């Protein structure tokens, strides 16, 4: 009996995942600046706000437990129309987070492994009387070029441009620009090929 109930719950959860995913024809997709045909945000998302400033290209798949956020909190007034741009045919691995405050651009055919983190904002520690969490550096645009691959656990910091066709190894921290076609690994990431 236990196995039958367990199997039934698993089937129900899988069906719920399909029904609750966000696709171009769903009501939630209408909140986005653009939501391309054939694209999907799998259920459940981790965090999702600032949709009017998010554009998603065609045939892009965003895995479960991903966060796509623009601004600091839901409902914040946004100062741009296209602050987070994902290209066509991208795959964003489960558990990944993309947090835009100024502008993040991800080109066509970019693949993320699980748990990749990309942001264009960081905290400062200039005022010793103010908590670090309440201090911030000026936001700096992030660009990830087409056909690039970011493996599991990669972190991309503010102000970085990753060229086209770049491979970044697992758990690397990208703190400086990476040229087209290179392979980079480490924390901080260094070009190795």
Structure commentary:
Strands 2-5-8-11-14-17-19-20 form an eight-stranded mixed sheet, with no helix packed on it. Strands 1-4-7-10-13-16 form a six-stranded parallel sheet, with no helix packed on it. It is mostly beta strands and 193 residues long. It has one helix and 20 strands. It has one helix spanning 2-20, and strands at residues 34-35, 40-41, 47-49, 54-56, 61-62, 67-70, 84-86, 91-92, 97-100, 104-106, 111-112, 117-119, 142-144, 149-150, 155-156, 161-162, 167-168, 173-174, 183-185, 190-191. The chain is globular and about 60 Å long.
DSSP, total strands: 20
Along the chain, the helix and strand elements come as HEEEEEEEEEEEEEEEEEEEE
Biggest sheet record: 8 strands, mixed
Q: What average pLDDT do the residues reach? A: 94
Strand order in the largest sheet = 2-5-8-11-14-17-19-20
At the third CATH level, what is the topology name? UDP N-Acetylglucosamine Acyltransferase, domain 1
